[in-house]
Predict the 3D structure of the following.
Amino acid sequence: MKHPYKTREGGATVTIFVPYDCKNHCPFCINKGEYADLTGFSAEKICQSIRTMDAITPYCDFVFTGGEPFANLESLQMMLDTIPTTHKVYINTTLPVSEHQSEDDIVAFTERNKDKITCINISRHMQRYVVESNDALLSRLAVPFRINCVLFKDYPSEGLVPYLERFLKVPGASIQFRFDYTATTPENLYDQEGDRILQDLKKIAPYTGLDGCRMRCGFHFDYKGMELTYHKTLPYSTIVETDPKDGVTYDILYDILIKQNGDIHSDWTGVLMDVDAYRKVVFEPYDLHWIEGSARA
Ligand code: SF4
C-alpha cells in the first residue's frame, strides 16, 4: 500500500551516484554491478534531478558517491555547479591519483570548490584493496575531510591502533569506523554488549557518547585528541509508521537517491520515488539526538 511521505526538517539526504566508475575491484563492493553497463547513464539527467530535489527541499544535504566521484573532475564540476550553496555537500571518494590526474589537480579542485564542498569522506580500509594516494595529500585539501573505514566481521583487531596512529600523523583527520550495514538490523543497531567493534574501541580510546535516531547511530570516542566515531546504519532508509496524532500511516524517508541515469529512488532497495507525492511531503523534527554523553568540546 502506498503511504504519504514524511521526512525530517530540511528534507531527506539526497545521495547522487555519479555516472562513471572507479578503477578498483574491492571484494565487498556493492555498487560495482551497477557500473558494469553504463547505458543510460547521464550527467545531464542527474543535474535535472538535482534541480528537482533542490526545488522541493532547498536545504537538504547532498552526497556524491559512486563509482568514484573524483574519476571525472569535469563532470563532477558540472554536477556541483548545479547545487545552490544553501545545501551541504559531501563527497565519498578514494581520492584517486593517476598519470592523468595529479595530487595538484585534486588540491586545485578543492580550492576552486571550497565554498561548495562541506566535507570529503575518504575511504581508507585496513586491508588495502585500492592504490591509495599519499597520506600527505589529505592535509593539502582546501576543505574539511574525514577518513571512512568499514570494519567487516573478520577485521583484525590488532590492526586498529596502527591504523589510528597512521592518521594521527595527518593534521585535520578524523575517523569514522563503519559497521557492515548489510548486517545491521533494528535489533542490533543499538546493541552494545554483543558488538565486537564497540567493545574493541572501548579498550583503546575513551568513549565520549552516543547519538542516534530510528535509522542510524554513532558511538563517539576521543583518540589522543583525534575525533573517532563508530557509525551503524540500517540497510534501508524508509520507516513505515502511524502518527498517533493524526492516525495517518506515513513512509518516513531518511535517504533519497539519484541514480546514474537520473532516476530518483526513495530507498536503497530499488524503490522509485513518487516525486509528485514528495512535493507534498510532511516534515517532522529530526529525531537524531544525544543518548549518552554529548558532543566534544
Ligand atoms: S573504490 Fe568504492 S566503488 Fe570502487 S570498487 Fe572499491 S568500494 Fe566499489
Notes: Helices lie at 43-56, 73-81, 103-112, 135-138, 160-168, 196-204, 275-278. Residues 22, 24-26, 29, 31-32, 66-68, 94, 130 surround iron/sulfur cluster (CB under 6 Å). The domain at 5-293 is CATH 3.20.20 (TIM Barrel). The first helix runs from residue 43 to 56.
